[in-house]
Each structure stands twice: as structure tokens, then as C-alpha cells.
Amino acid sequence: MGAHGESGRGRFMWARRVLVIVMWVVAAVIGLCIPIIGLTWLTQGAQQMGDASALADRGRPTIGTVQDTRARSDGPGTGVKHYILVRFAASDETHHSVWADGDEDKGDVVRVLYDPRDPENAITGSVTDERVHGVTRIVGGVLLGPLLILIYVGWGWRKLRDRRRASR
Fold it and tell me: Which residues span the membrane (predicted)?
């Protein structure tokens, strides 16, 4: 069996090597994408917190009319999220349209809070809800972004240290 067993085993070694390389490439891609998503959430959360603070500081209430509605699902079992397109007049009599969370019907009247310096920064909900969503994104971003990068670095450092100790 000596020569035959070795050649039988060695015949598919190239396939094993290819599989290992493919697995490492996939792991690297996933390992890079997850922190990028996390950092994106982190910046979106910071932006959302800034917008909510601007609305809390200088927001002006007005009334808007629902112009359009949309429903979106992220897949089976995720539920449906409803959006409304609201048109409102700012204090300078310019008209603006913004998409917001909501399940009102076309033609319904809704309360809008907008930033007079940036009327596209407008919400139909509360500033507190916006801040909660911002904090949630920031926490998720920290967990997926920098924290995961630190875990990767720590894992790699430990592997390198273990290899050095094993070679002594």
C-alpha cells in the first residue's frame, strides 16, 4: 500500500490547497466587510445624532401633507417598514418634500419638525426617537467596526505569538 496509498492521497492535495485558499479569501472578505459596515453605521449614527440635535435646538413645527406611501421589507420574517412622502411649507414659504417613517395614508395631514437652515432635515416623529435610532446605530457600529478590528488584531497577535513559542 506504501506507494499506492501515498499517490492516492497526494493526487488530491492540490484540491485541498485550493479549498484552503478559497476559505481564507472568503474569511478575509467577510472580515473586511463587517468592520466597513460597522464604521458606516457609526458615521450614520453620528450624523443622525447631529441632525436630531439641530432639530432640538432650532427645529420649527409645521403641518405637512402625505403625498405618497411606500412599504419595504428586508425579506421573509423581517416585517414591513412603511414610509411616507410628506410635502410641507417652510417659514420662508418654500415647499419641501421628505421621506419619513410612517403609515399614514395619502392626503393625511401630519406634524413635521424641520430645520430652517436645512429644510430637508425634517421628521414626522419625535426628536427622542431620532436620538434613540442614532445611539443604536452608534452602538452597533462600535460593535461591528472598531471592536471587531481589535478582536482580529488580538487574535492575529496571539496566533503569531503561539507560532513563535512553538518554533523555540
Answer: 18-42, 138-157
